[in-house]
Amino acid sequence: MLSKLYGSTGKILVFAMFTILGSMIILPLIWMLFSSFKENSEFFSDPWGLPRKFQWNNYVYAIKYGVGKYFTNSIIVTVLSTIFTVFFSALGAYVLSRFEFRSKDIIFIFILGGMMISPEVNLVSLFKLLQKLNLYNKHIGLIITYCTYQFSFTVLLMRSYMLSMSRSMEESAFIDGCSSFNVFIYIILPISKPVLASGALLSTMHTWNEYMFATVFIESDKLKTIPVGLVTLKSALKTNYPILISGLVISAAIMIILFLIFQKQFIRGLSEGSIKE
Amino acid sequence: MKVYKSKKIIILYLAPVIISLVIFVYYPLIRSIIDSFYSWVSYSPDRKWVGLANYIQIFSNEEIGTIFKNNILYAILSVIFQVGVAMVLAACLEELFMRQSQKYFRTILFLPSLISMTVIGLLWQALLNPNNGLVNYFIHYIGFTNVTPLWLGDQKIAIFCCIFVSQWQYVGYCMLLDLVGIQKIPRELYEAAKIDGGGSIKNFIYITLPMAKESMLVTALITVIGSFKVFTEIQIMTGGGPGRSTEVLATAMYRSAFINDEMGVASAYAIIIFGITLVLSLFQLKITHSGQV
Fold first, then answer.
1. Cβ-Cβ contacts under 8 Å, A35 against chain B
2. What is the ipTM of this complex?
3. Which residue segments constitute the domains of chain A, with CATH numbers given?
């Protein structure tokens, strides 16, 4: 009887703990959502309450004050970075998982080694290098660096998946006279779909949220991506919080929606190789 | 197969990855090492060999103590929360009576890690605003009307606020990874323990922890590596201030490069970060590849 009581107290405590933790996470996010619909005066006088009237105008202003432009830039950079990262990583992983050559181990270590050199370490030299290569203050410079710093991880992720795939289909395709590129496009890529999806989602998340490169390698306001744009917007708006907060909501919503749709692929990708921003 | 031996195709297919790694990862690293021995500014070709002077300047600066203290504090607290606490939370969620609600808690706790640090940083800056932020509003609401902490504006607690926000963002993420790990532990182990009459806590100590030991060690190393590279959260929330109280290696590097225009000093900071993270990464690689994980 006593141990049963003890057991249920424990259960209640655990459940209570998760409820408190969950509230600590969700309340600030809900506050963000509510605040984005408030009038500025209401935001200050009644910080914790439903908006009296939903001010959709905040979103219109946020988009007009720059979020629209930053959003478009982020979409361009994210989509292109993701496509290039996934395509070239898959191509590299295909070679590493299938082809036979002597320097394979060295190439493998070379790619693996890329993971040990972090973007922070190269920030200053990359800044100079991009200027020299005429890639500074251009989306293409940002896209190339984003791709490069994701190659190592994505190649390794895809390689281990491709190693586990059966080779019988490719073999018959080669006997029928297919080129290796056709085999890659029509056989390898379709079978690798799950890992391509994981790689693409991680790349999207990383690129959409990245701040450091975006703030150092882009100078013109009209080229800024959303994380940097929001910081610019903050100093431009001074104390008009609700408009800034609607910008925050727009940026956050995209990733949350993507996650809710592709939860399975997200979690697989994350647990395959624990990486973090 | 003959096709799989063609050198031309191998080179062609690997080229995009290899060439970009050479140009944008390995070359800049070598440049950083060389540049850290020179005194130079951003928009002038003149440079002067100064030997170790940039490093000496960094280590003789009184701020270096604060900088390392902040990075180490970041590492310790992150390991406690993202490795220790996250694991306990994951084990609790795997308990039978939590199974039904697991889905909801899992998703809610994971949400912040999907959002960019910029958004999280700006959000918490608003929440922690001493005059009109929600946190102080709450403190006043529950009765402590004369307590008004400055949070990010207080030299003593600002760094803890930054670290808190990081944990707030990533505890759920680590918990989710641990959950995936726990679910891979063979069920038979727990069933056998059940027959022997083991309780939840005993199961956690004698089955879950030993089975997850190696992966926890790797997570701990990744977390520590991350703590020595931390940049965005601090840059957004405090920019290293107030004073220099929340300065970390990466923000100090940013300040040297893009505010003080001492590119040589910035390169030296970069190499210090590289040195620390390299040692930790090699250690991590050794554990991962010794077949233990």
1. 126
2. 0.89
3. 59-272 (1.10.3720.10)
